[in-house]
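From the pipeline queue, job 12 of 40. The input is one protein chain; the requested action is below.

Action: predict structure.
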Amino acid sequence: HGGDDQALYAYGREDLDRWEGELGRELNNGMFGENLTTSGVDVTACLIGERWSVGSDGLLLEVTSPRTPCQTFVKWLEIPGWIKT
């Protein structure tokens, strides 16, 4: 888990808010297994190779691939059939 080039999953608070309406329940940050919940950033429109500077220390993040939903969603949401395997 140490060193450079670690995986990070970013998800937009706006998308969580939309799913709250769909599911009719509160979804806390991290509910979809994300390590980073953004606000005001359209993570669905990010491009491979795009770089984000985060925080006052300038942590550099680079988009390398989309994330395919996994069983984490089913575990957290407790909704059978949430994803297709």
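Job complete. The mean pLDDT is 84.
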